[in-house]
Design a protein that fits this description.
This protein is mostly beta strands. It is built from no helices and 11 strands. A hairpin with a 6-residue loop joins strand 5 and strand 6 (58-60).
Length: 123
């Protein structure tokens, strides 16, 4: 059964860092572009970052550019989101998603979604 599982979320103080992981099981991420999305309470889901199948092309939302870095390790079948200089407004549930196309998108449709991991930025 194809699954994506996010991990690495938690509570962090403003200015801190977290690294989220998105691990695939039941399929190989080599053939998929990956997106990270987030949804804060009372807000719509928004695209945070995405990476192409080759890993050459990455995209970032303006609100996270310069602070977040997306990367992939196909040998580990995992995609990462390094989040630095975190702000309270980054608080949300973060989801990864896989799309069976070479180029990634900052919005759906995606083929597979993880269950999400909570990130809370608070002092």
């Amino acid at each position: 059964q194809a699954q994506l599982v996010e991990s690495g979320g938690g509570l962090v103080q403003p200015g801190g860092s977290l690294r989220l992981s998105c691990a695939a099981s039941g399929f190989t991420l080599d053939y998929y572009s990956i997106g990270w999305f987030r949804q804060a309470p009372g807000k719509e889901r928004e695209g945070v970052s995405c990476i192409s199948r080759s890993g050459v092309t990455t995209n970032y939302a303006g609100s996270v550019k310069g602070r977040f870095t997306i990367s992939r390790d196909n040998a580990k079948n995992t995609v990462y989101l390094q989040m630095n200089s975190l702000k309270p407004e980054d608080t949300a549930v973060y989801y990864c998603a896989a799309r069976s196309q070479a180029m990634c998108l900052m919005s759906p449709p995606y083929d597979y979604w993880g269950q999400g991991t909570q990130v809370t930025v608070s002092s």
